[in-house]
Amino acid sequence: MIGQHVFLHSARGADALVSLIDEYLGPMGVTLIVAEVNYNYQYESHPELSDGDLDPAAAGRVADACERHGIRLVPMLNCLGHQSWAETTYALLREHPEFDETPQIPLDNPDIYCRSWCPLHPQVNGVVFDLMDELIEGFRADAFHVGMDEVFLIASEQCERCRGKRPADLFAKAVNDYHAHLVGQRGVEMMIWGDRLIDGRAMLYGSWEASLNDTAEAMTMIPKDIIICDWHYEPRDSYPSVPHFAEDGFRVLVSPWKDVAAAELLVGYAQESGGAGWSGVLFTGWSAGDGGLGLLRALRGEAEEGAGGTGEAAVLRAILPRLVADDGP
Predict the structure, then answer these.
(1) CA distance 36 to 149
(2) Mean pLDDT throughout 28-34?
């Protein structure tokens, strides 16, 4: 698999993504797009959770473009963590504060990175599964990405349900709940970011790209048919998590960002050491704009130096032709 992750937050972003697919990603050989939608879809089941104008018609246009080029389209809803950014609390916890893992923290989020929902709240999964179902249907998807990166607020003393529980048990419980719905009930594949499943102390990673908050043991408690997207953005001599996941029976997509040298090191290491479990690359688009608009402008040569999307474009140009020539992993 050769994939590109993008945010998809609006109907305008959907139109940009269609152009990006038709003009570049399809012809360049991309076979997978992960569209991170979150709370920007017009959810019919829970309209109070809709903060954008992305609707089923726009999702269908993206799905049509992917079908024209034989690209697998995977919607993403960031689950458990990343329920806020800076001073903004996102729709789920804004509208359902009872789901909050840390209810004592004010909603402008002082002194935290991102809020989390409580994985033990008896009603949260019912709401989340409704959102997943609508995205699967709207994007005509056969896989779903649940996010789950950088979950720092877990097993909080503020949560009456999670207090005193082991973080690894709670994280695994959440993963298994989503797997039971997506794979067991909906019959689609499941993807996840890998950082909370990596023991940062043992593998000498930092607290962002790996877990220093005791969630890593969850890797031993979850199904092996989950596709793990193992992201690393800095140059290193080795990336031991790649063979670690692969040897444990998982399929792994390594996920670089916008540093060409770091991306080449990560992909090269996966090619040499990933073994049979290495399944390809998912390029991330954190600064590529809504629908990859910044990436589209950069690939067209319309972006100023250093603008959002230029780093992602440089990585694609440097690595993608070689992957396609090698027919991927």
Answers:
(1) 13
(2) 98
Count CA within 13 A, CB hemisphere, residue 316. 27
The DSSP 8-state label assigned to residue 99 in this structure reads G
- Cβ atoms < 10 Å from Cβ of 85: 12
DSSP character for 197?
G
Burial 180-212 (b: 16+ CB within 10 A, else e): ebbbeebebbbbbbbbbbbbbeebebeebbbbe
Digit-coded pLDDT (tens) for 274-323: 888 999 999 999 999 999 999 999 999 999 999 999 999 999 999 999 99
CATH number for the region 2-325 comes to 3.20.20.80
Q: Given CA atoms 320, 323, 328, 329 in this order, what sign does their dihedral have?
A: negative
122: left (phi over 0), alpha (psi -120 to 50) or beta: alpha
CA distance 91 to 33: 24
Q: Is the dihedral of CA 86, 34, 98, 91 positive or negative?
A: positive
**Tokens in use for 24?**
């570049």
Q: Can you give the residue ranges of every domain in the chain? A: 2-325
Q: Give the residues across from 148 on adjacent strands.
A: none
Per-residue tokens: 122: 């008896």
Ramachandran quadrant class, 252 (left: phi over 0; alpha: psi -120 to 50; beta: rest): beta
Joined together, the tokens standing for residue 160 give: 């009456």
Q: Which residue type is seen at 139?
A: F
Rounded Cα distance between 140 and 68, Å, is 14
Q: Check: pTM over 0.85? Answer yes or no.
A: yes
Instruction: Give the C-alpha separation, 328 to 212, whole Å.
Output: 32
Round to whole Å and give the CA distance between 120 and 118.
Answer: 5
